[in-house]
């Protein structure tokens, strides 16, 4: 166990007062000769929203995939609510049920209705009865303004609606943490706001979120903290607004100059 002698935040933002929702230490991942994650340390407090920014290829998606074990890390440790999820003897499906993930491409099942897309995980992973799954699914769909679309096929929906269905599907599983990987990057510009508004409301509701995004203004307004990844490492992290307005590192300054 880590011991903490002060209430000052350490380098990964941990106050030591509560077990983090997510804790990553020394995470390494390589694809062949390419070392994609080179020792990532990151804590996410319960209820915190973190935005992960960084140039293409810096390892952001790989980090998210490691967090819900879509990719096995090569070394290092990941804990969810204090519980180790890396190493041997871990039920990866059980972990994935605790970590919701929303991708750039919505990955909805095209042959199923919206409702069936949302109930599938509840029925097959959480063993809900059909009735209980439909009640839980409708509650999420209504919450995101999608109730009237429950019996449509995804291809009848706009991209923004489809992405909101993907969010409802993840939320229906009652995850401890939600991961978003460029959830608005594939959307037409006029549809981006709807999805960002849902994410903003979710952050405000106290969900723990790790959001990979190119939307710097969203990060500035919604994130508690930004994490800047560079070449497989966390190169800078800090409270969103001051870090984005006044970066400490030249690398983050350069990155922001390029994207803003
Ligand atoms: P980001 O999301 O920051 O753009 P990624 O995590 O997707 O970065 O990728 C980091 C690097 O790892 C890139 O160079 C990418 O080409 C490589 N990479 C990602 N996934 C794979 C894979 N499955 N096999 C081989 N290389 C990969
Ligand atoms: Mg990516």
Core attributes:
single chain; 260 residues; 6-stranded mixed β-sheet; 4-stranded antiparallel β-sheet; 36% helix; 23% strand; binds adenosine-5'-diphosphate; binds magnesium ion; MetN_ABC_transporter-like; nucleotide-binding
Would you kindly provide a brief summary of this structure?
With 260 residues, the protein is of the alpha/beta class. It contains 9 helices and 10 strands. Magnesium ion binds next to helix 1.
What class would the helix/strand composition place it in? Answer: alpha/beta
Please summarize the sheet with the most strands. Answer: 6 strands, mixed
What characteristic shape results from the CA principal axes? globular
Oligomer, anyone? single chain
Work out the radius of gyration. 18 Å
Alpha carbon gap, first and last residue = 41 Å
Q: So how many helices? A: 9
**What is the helix content?**
25-40%
Q: Give a list of the ligands.
A: adenosine-5'-diphosphate, magnesium ion
Low-confidence stretches: 1-8
Family: Belongs to the ABC transporter superfamily.
Subcellular location: Cell membrane
Membrane topology: Peripheral membrane protein
Domain ABC transporter: 22-256
């Amino acid at each position: 166990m880590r011991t903490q002698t002060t209430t000052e935040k350490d380098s990964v933002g941990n106050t030591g007062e509560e077990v983090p929702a997510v804790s990553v230490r020394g995470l390494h991942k390589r694809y062949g000769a390419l070392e994609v994650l080179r020792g990532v340390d990151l804590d996410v407090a319960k209820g915190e929203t973190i935005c992960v920014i960084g140039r293409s290829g810096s390892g952001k998606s790989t980090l998210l995939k490691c967090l819900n074990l879509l990719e096995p890390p090569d070394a290092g440790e990941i804990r969810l609510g204090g519980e180790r999820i890396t190493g041997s003897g871990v039920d990866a499906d059980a972990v994935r049920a605790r970590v919701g993930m929303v991708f750039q491409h919505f990955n909805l099942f095209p042959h199923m209705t919206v409702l069936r897309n949302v109930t599938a995980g509840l029925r097959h992973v959480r063993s809900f009865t059909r009735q209980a799954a439909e009640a839980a699914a409708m509650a999420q769909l209504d919450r995101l303004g999608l109730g009237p679309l429950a019996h449509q096929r995804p291809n009848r929906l706009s991209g923004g609606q489809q992405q909101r269905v993907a969010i409802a599907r993840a939320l229906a599983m009652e995850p401890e943490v939600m991961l978003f990987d460029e959830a608005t990057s594939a959307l037409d510009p006029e549809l981006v706001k709807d999805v960002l508004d849902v994410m903003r409301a979710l952050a405000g509701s106290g969900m723990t979120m790790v959001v990979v995004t190119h939307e710097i203004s969203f990060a500035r307004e919604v994130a508690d903290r930004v994490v800047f990844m560079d070449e497989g490492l966390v190169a800078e992290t800090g409270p969103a607004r001051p870090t984005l307005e006044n970066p400490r590192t030249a690398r983050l300054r350069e990155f922001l100059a390029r994207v803003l």
